[in-house]
Design goal:
alpha+beta, Heat Shock Protein 90, Ribosomal Protein S5, domain 2, Ribosomal Protein S8, Chain: A, domain 1, 3 domains, eight-stranded mixed β-sheet, 18 helices, 24% strand
């Protein structure tokens, strides 16, 4: 007897489930895509315990008759393709006929569907077996209820993340589909609480405002372009509306949401270095292409696509977005500490730098930095700036080159590091609370416990009533840069979310480095003589004026006697 045997259909579906259904969001994705293919104009998602207990997706689409409702649970049964030609001309989101049978093989599924209001068919599957098929009544469309997911496959169940993480992934997915399909009204609830909804009016700015906030929505600019192979369109936010995560970039290909890291890198390059280091743009991109030029069948979850002529697509995206910002200028007004203010003194800014006009302003927190064998800055005469990056000084010993960004990083790092180690008395209340918003899938993690972690760092956040993704900042550390409070809060939130298990001491050091780097004077930025003298004066107050927090050298001296040897003026 041969060893090779045909696997039974139920086992085939369970294996398929391992590829198609890795996370709870995958279930939602497959059901939402079926609803979109059914030309629904309303898709409601209801979760219990973030989907761990139950996922319900209901639409008002075309619905199915009894024969199709029964057939849709058969593997590779699909209405989307008929021939090999159709496979290479895919216009629908679903086409393999794997999703529903795969889901039904590892869960309890109740499907209710009808093609018109009134008589409907209800089919129940559990762990891949038909349990019941009955007549019922319902409104036009399809309702799919999934529960007991992975109940009999605990090995897969254990790889699911926390309820908050799974809910965040689902919210992120629904956010993306709301942007990609603005004429569909989406809603999502968890445990009876509404988290997201759109009207389906087709108004993109309404959707952007709901997901990203009103200020971002106002800044979004439309772009479009085309070449021989591709047509693109989308929206890009102002460089000032940047974020600390790439999660704010969405890509659709023929109305299908995808993930493609090389394309997000093109977005970043297209902003022409107008973004701070490790800050990312908010971009939505729609790509229209002949289905023959792409392969949507290269990933079990259909999240990745293989492109033909990818270089031409990159060039088209780059030129279309970069043209929005050719003449764009970022100008920030100087913020000076007000004399007589009741608030602790803040850093003074000149063109986004820390460079105070008086070194004593570095003494913000009652204790001065210890000066260790410091070169008196007044002995240094400023000569000028080399390639917009290096400051040139001279004294009796010779010539000094100072990396302006590395120097500013060191100054800020020691300022922040010292401030973070001080008692909480350096925290003060804001007379007028500030507002900060995050995407829903990020905001879901900012719960009571997380906000308590933030309070250790001097930041008090409270959720705004009726707006789950928006918060009020009531209290901040006194060392926060004036005019940069919201940016600092966002940086800290994102970093703490990404590094929850880090040692507190190491975390404190890394946050200080992060803020110092992001808010310091950059290379290729003009510095006048006043700022140059202020920078070198503050540098001498640092405990380590020789290297930046990343270990790179800050200053190099060329001794006069060596220079004279170069020019044969001395032996």
């Amino acid at each position: 007897m041969g060893k090779i045997m045909q696997l039974e259909p139920r086992l085939q579906n369970m294996i398929a489930a391992g590829e198609v259904v890795e996370r709870l969001a995958n279930v939602v994705k497959e059901l939402v895509e079926n609803a979109i293919d059914a030309e629904a104009t309303m898709i409601d998602i209801a979760l219990e315990e973030s989907g761990f207990k139950k996922i319900v997706v209901q639409d008002n689409g075309s619905g199915m008759d009894e024969a199709d409702a029964s057939a849709c649970f058969n593997r590779h049964a699909t209405s989307k393709i008929r021939s090999e030609y159709d496979l290479f001309h895919i216009h629908s989101l679903g086409f393999r006929g794997e999703a529903l049978p795969a889901i039904a093989s590892v869960s309890h599924v109740v499907l209710t569907t009808t093609q018109s209001d009134g008589a409907a068919i209800q089919i129940i599957y559990q762990d891949g077996r038909l349990i019941d098929k009955t007549s019922t009544s319902a409104k036009k469309g399809t309702r799919v209820e999934v529960s007991r997911l992975f109940y009999h496959t605990p090995a897969r169940y254990k790889y699911l993340k926390s309820p908050q993480t799974e809910l965040g992934e689902i919210l992120s997915l629904v956010n993306a589909y709301a942007i990609g399909h603005p004429k569909i009204a989406f809603s999502i609830m968890n445990n009876g609480k509404s988290y997201f909804h759109t009207s389906g009016s087709g108004d993109m700015r309404e959707i952007f405002a709901r997901i990203y906030g009103l200020e971002v929505a106002k800044s979004m600019q439309f772009f479009s372009g085309s070449n021989r192979d591709y047509r693109i369109s989308g929206y890009a936010a102002s460089p000032l509306e940047n974020r600390a995560s790439r999660k704010y970039m969405s890509i659709f290909v023929n109305h299908r949401v995808i993930k493609n890291y090389p394309l997000t890198q093109v977005f970043e390059r297209a902003y022409h270095q107008k973004l701070p280091i490790k800050r990312y743009p908010i971009v939505h991109l729609d790509i229209e292409v002949d289905p023959q030029l792409i392969d949507v069948n290269v990933h079990p979850n259909k999240l990745e696509i293989k492109f033909s002529e990818i270089e031409s697509l990159h060039a088209l995206i780059y030129s279309s977005i970069s043209n929005l910002f050719v003449s764009y200028r970022i100008t920030e007004t100087a913020h000076l500490a007000n004399e007589g203010s009741d608030h602790p003194k803040q850093e003074r800014y000149f063109n986004q730098t820390l460079l105070e006009t008086d070194p004593k302003d570095f003494d913000t927190f009652t204790e001065r930095f210890e000066v260790r064998d410091a070169q008196d800055a007044r002995e240094l005469a400023y000569i000028g700036q080399l390639h917009g990056t290096y400051l040139i000084f001279q004294n009796s010993e010779g010539m000094w080159l100072i990396d302006q960004h590395a120097a500013a990083e060191r100054i800020r790092y020691e300022l922040y590091r010292k401030a973070m180690s001080l008692p909480m008395k350096t925290v003060y209340d804001l007379l007028i609370p500030l507002e900060v918003s995050f995407k829903d899938d990020i905001a879901i993690h900012i719960d009571t416990d997380f906000r308590k972690r933030l309070e250790v760092w001097g930041v008090t956040l409270v959720p705004m009533e009726g707006a789950e993704s928006r918060f009020q900042v009531l209290q901040i550390p006194s060392w926060f840069a004036q005019g940069q409070e919201i940016a600092f809060v966002e940086e800290m939130v994102m970093y703490l979310l990404d590094h929850q298990s880090m040692d507190p001491g190491a975390l404190q050091d890394e946050i200080a480095i992060l803020l110092a780097c992001k808010r310091s004077i950059k290379a290729n930025q003009y510095v006048d003589s006043r700022e140059a003298y202020s920078l070198v004066s503050q540098l001498e107050l640092c405990t380590n004026p020789d290297t930046c927090p990343h270990g790179r050298p800050i200053r190099v001296m060329f001794r006069l006697k060596d220079i004279e040897k170069w020019f044969k003026r001395a032996e």
